[in-house]
Amino acid sequence: MSESESDQTIELNYDNWYLWDLHIMSTILRKKAYLAFDPQPVDPRAQQLVNPPSAAPSVTITPQPTSEELTTYREELREWKAANNIATGIILGAISDGVRHVIDLKDPAKVMYGKLKAEVAEVVKQSSNSIANWIRIELFNN
């Protein structure tokens, strides 16, 4: 398969989730952007809330990471951001105008994917219930 054939886009709409999902996940894997679906690296300088075992109030601790920990964090964050940018671009390039309202452009790719999946599942569930109710009404009327 040529590169141009493998880069053809399947746009998500409300009736092709499984085909779209397969296309998106295979494209993300092929572009080596699957890291975007891992949690974003945590800054080692982030404050941590510590609950002591006694009845004393919680304490907030600001750790002092080593130079090596900061370097590792920055490298992991850079890799994650690059993967997230690629995965986000793939997702945004493969959704129809009918589902574009579901996502927020500020969200990471994993969140976008989750929102799209939930939205499509809800619409499919509602339409399945509507069809089932219509069939019950038809059977009752006959």
Overview of the structural elements:
The protein is mainly alpha-helical. Helix content is about 55%, strand content about 5%. The chain has a two-stranded antiparallel sheet. β1 and β2 form a beta hairpin. α3 runs parallel beside α4. The longest helix is centred in the last third of the chain and has 33 residues. About 15% of the residues are buried. The N terminus is likely disordered.
Blueprint (SSEs and pairs):
Layout (H helix, E strand, L loop, with lengths): L2 H4 L10 H14 L17 E3 L8 E3 L5 H26 L16 H33 L1
Antiparallel strand pairs: 1-2
Helix pairs in contact: 3-4
Over the alpha carbons, how many angstroms does the gyration radius reach? 22 Å
Write down the overall geometry: flat
Mean pLDDT: 83
Please identify the structural class as seen in this structure: mainly alpha
The number of helical elements comes to: 4
Question: pLDDT under 50 segments (min length 5)?
Answer: 1-5
Q: What quaternary form is this?
A: single chain
Q: Can you give the helix content as a percent range?
A: 40-55%
Instruction: State the order of secondary-structure elements, H for helix, E for strand.
Output: HHEEHH
Strand content: under 5%
Largest sheet: 2 strands, antiparallel
Distance between the termini: 53 Å
> How many strands in all?
2
The side-by-side strand order for the widest beta sheet comes to 1-2
Q: Quick summary of this structure?
A:
The chain is mainly alpha-helical and 142 residues long. 54% of the residues lie in helices and 4% in strands.
